[in-house]
TrEMBL record:
Organism: Bradyrhizobium quebecense
Entry protein name: AAA family ATPase
Gene3D superfamilies: 3.40.50.2300, P-loop containing nucleotide triphosphate hydrolases
Region annotation (Disordered) ranges: 1-22, 400-422
An annotated Gene Ontology molecular function: ATP hydrolysis activity
Keywords: ATP-binding, Nucleotide-binding
UniProt key word Aminoacyl-tRNA synthetase: no
UniProt xrefs under InterPro entries: AAA_dom, P-loop_NTPase, ParA/MinD_ATPase
Family matches, as Pfam families: AAA_31
GO term, biological process aspect, one: negative regulation of cell division
Length: 422
């Protein structure tokens, strides 16, 4: 993807761009070396290197621009990606011609320049430049430029990861996650998988009325075997568009993991599923923090009490600070309106977190209890329940899809309409 056309159509400003809902696939393990002319660009590249999508890339930054790059590669191999900042038009073309004499085949070049001209852009493309970013470059511009080099237009889209976590235990975060995934699959017609990460006590198998012989534990305890075929065998089919990577929910093992224990599983799921919903247990460890920060979107589920407010704010602030180039986490209130229970109003949550909840799901023990005991979703128990519409709205927000799947009319529809009119 070339960013020139996009940037040329928008007025350039010095203010950093706001986080937008464009899905940028993470970069693989590649080496990236940047040669900057200005400290501002160097700072932007440094900030980009701290972004979650470049977590696997090895980034090195040097000053000196084009001249420094040419000198450096006279006696050293070139990396996977070179980022070059240059000041003038003539410097770019002449410098690239010299760089080509010392550049290894397969190395991709991203140029950051201040000349906004389509003729120059065509000359750069003719010389093999992969991308041209117009200065001043911000961190998200660098992230997008590098990541898009490894996300070819003809390649299958990398899956979007949505992480759902409770601000406190027992707030119903798993129920919310499973119903949102159901809405994504049924109403948005998007192939999805639910990964139940609570290996000891996970409820996804119960909620979807599934009892698979294998699940996520088989993958996390055999990281060397994890590939597309292996993970496909572990998936349990719930509906046409929804699959489950179930937790064993047994206590015969102790589930202590390192921070990177689930990386291979998530990476593999991204290559095969458009949407991955992570049911993250309420605990704070290296791998849960890593899973949340690495997700494309985050939903925090909280009950309307003081402990939930404190925890939700702490999680919201940390995740927002850890993901400066992403949309801020979202949160919803659950179990709202318990009789005779004092509650903190949604407005107080919004004031403390500085963001309103995207939904306030009413307390309805009859419907939610029946769904849980029957292994069904709320939409299956009561299709017109107001929580069903909330789950759909949250599914749309979290996936960036605003339109629902339109029901297919049968060939009898016109006749039925005439009969109704009579």
């Amino acid at each position: 993807m070339i960013t020139y056309a996009q940037q040329n159509s928008e007025e350039q400003t010095d203010a950093p761009p706001q986080a937008v809902d464009d899905h940028i696939a993470p970069a693989p393990r590649v080496s990236v070396q940047a040669f900057c002319e200005t400290v501002e660009t160097a700072a932007a590249v440094q900030s980009a290197g701290e972004d979650r999508r470049l977590a696997k890339a090895h980034l090195k930054i040097q000053m000196g621009g084009m001249a420094a790059a040419i000198e450096a590669y006279r006696s050293a191999p070139t990396p996977n990606v070179i980022i070059l900042e240059t000041e003038g038009r003539s410097d770019i073309l002449a410098g690239l011609d010299q760089l080509a004499t010392v550049c290894d085949a397969g190395t991709r070049v991203v140029v950051i320049g201040r000349v906004n001209d389509v003729t120059l852009y065509r000359e750069l493309v003719r010389r093999g430049v992969s991308d041209y970013v117009i200065a001043p470059a911000h961190a998200i511009d660098v992230v997008r430029a590098v990541c898009n080099l490894f996300s070819a237009p003809e390649a299958k889209a990398v899956g979007r990861v949505v992480a759902v976590v409770g601000a406190k235990g027992g707030v119903g975060a798993s129920t919310i996650a499973h119903n949102i995934a159901w809405a994504i699959a049924r109403d948005l017609a998007l192939d999805s998988v639910v990964a139940d990460l609570d290996l000891a006590f996970g409820t996804a198998g119960l909620n979807y009325n599934q009892d698979p012989a294998q699940g996520i534990a088989d993958a996390v305890f055999s990281p060397d075997r994890v590939d597309t075929a292996f993970v496909d065998r572990l998936l349990s089919k719930c509906t046409d568009h929804l699959s489950l990577l179930a937790a064993p929910a047994t206590l015969d093992k102790v589930y202590d993991f390192g921070a990177e224990a689930f990386d291979a599983i998530f990476d593999t799921l991204r290559t095969t599923m458009p949407c991955i919903v992570l049911d993250v247990p309420h605990q704070w460890s290296g791998w849960t923090k890593r899973a949340l920060i690495a997700a494309d979107d985050i939903l925090i589920v909280a009950a309307p009490d003081l402990a939930n407010l404190r925890n939700a704010k702490n999680m919201f602030d940390l995740l927002k600070a850890s993901r400066p180039n992403d949309r801020a986490p979202l949160y919803c209130l659950n179990q709202v309106g318990v009789p005779k229970r004092p509650e903190i109003a949604a407005g107080e949550f919004a004031k403390a977190i500085e963001s309103p909840p995207i939904a306030a799901i009413p307390f309805d023990p009859q419907i939610f209890g029946s769904a849980a005991n029957n292994g069904q979703m709320i939409a299956e128990i009561s299709a017109n329940h107001r929580a069903v519409e909330m789950f759909l709205q949250m599914a749309q927000r979290l996936t960036g899809r605003g339109e629902t799947k339109k029901p297919r009319g049968s060939f009898l529809s016109p006749l039925l309409e005439k009969l109704r009119s009579k």
